[in-house]
Amino acid sequence: MSSKTRYIMSNGELKRRENSLSFRTNGKLNHIPVQSIRELYLMNEISINTKLLDFLGRMGIIVHFFNYYGNYSGTFYPREKYLSGKLKIKQVQKYLNQRLDVARPIVSGICGNIKELLIYYKKHNSDEKIVTTINFFKKDISDLLNKTYDIKSLLAVEGMIWNDFYRILKVIIRDEFEFDKRVKRPPDNPINAMIS
Question: Is the pTM of this model over 0.70?
Answer without folding.
Answer: no
